[in-house]
Amino acid sequence: MSQKLILASNSPRRKELLDKTGFPYKIVVSEINEKLNENFTPEENVKSLAEQKAEAVSLNYPDAVIIGADTMVCVDNVSLGKPKNEQEAKQMLKRLSGRIHTVMTGVCIKSNDITLSFVEKTDVAFYDLTDEEINNYISTGDSFDKAGAYGIQGQGALFVKRINGDFFSVMGLPVARVYRELKSILN
After folding, report:
1. How far is 104 from 99, CA to CA, in rounded Å?
2. Which of 5, 40, 86, 134 could form a Cys-Cys staple with 25, CB 3.0–4.6 A?
3. Which GO terms describe its molecular function (predicted)?
4. Annotated catalytic, 131?
């Protein structure tokens, strides 16, 4: 591998998934203001945020290959970010209860001569959730660093009736596609 690979994320889930590729990399967290553009669709926003993260890190590492990613949960064409408190987490999980929502992960792979951006969409169906289930889950603290107030890889898996799409994208990185794109860039 001739170029250095950098993951522009502090997400433990993205790190875990990128580890599966076998490519050596380092983590450099991008310090962007993750503000949604009101004129963009959720898909355009998640792609734009991934691009902004990769671009911000590339300014200090112009010869590296940078991976930026962002994940967003959408229901009724409304984006659900990370909840700020228990009340917001409860509202999000009640909104997702018994319904299908879309999880979008935007990815930007940027090197000095290539910028590849894409969005992976996965539909997730939830069982009907009781208030007790929601409260028990929120009490674990797992809701607060995840879009939509749940993580599919943890106890949030107990809410999931089925998924249609890439499971790993719901975790935060469509690792199989990222691996294939990196192979073509790094080798």
Report:
1. 16
2. 5
3. nucleoside triphosphate diphosphatase activity
4. no
pLDDT tens digits, one per residue of 72-102: 999 998 889 889 999 999 999 999 999 999 9
Give me the torsion for CA of 16, 21, 25, 27, rounded to 10°.
-30
- Rounded to two decimals, the pTM is 0.92
Q: How many whole angstroms from its chain centre is CA 44?
A: 14
Contact present, 29 and 8 (Cβ < 8 Å)? yes
Choosing from 70, 113, 131, 142, the catalytic residue is 70
Length of the chain: 187
| For helices 86-96 and 131-139, angle between their N-to-C axes, nearest 10 degrees | 140
Cα separation, 73 vs 91, whole angstroms: 14
State the distance between the two ends of the chain, measured CA to CA, in whole angstroms.
Answer: 6
DSSP state of 112: S
Q: What are the C-alpha distances in Å from 146 to residues 15, 33, 143, 153?
A: 15, 17, 6, 11
**5-186 adopts what CATH topology?**
Maf protein (3.90.950)
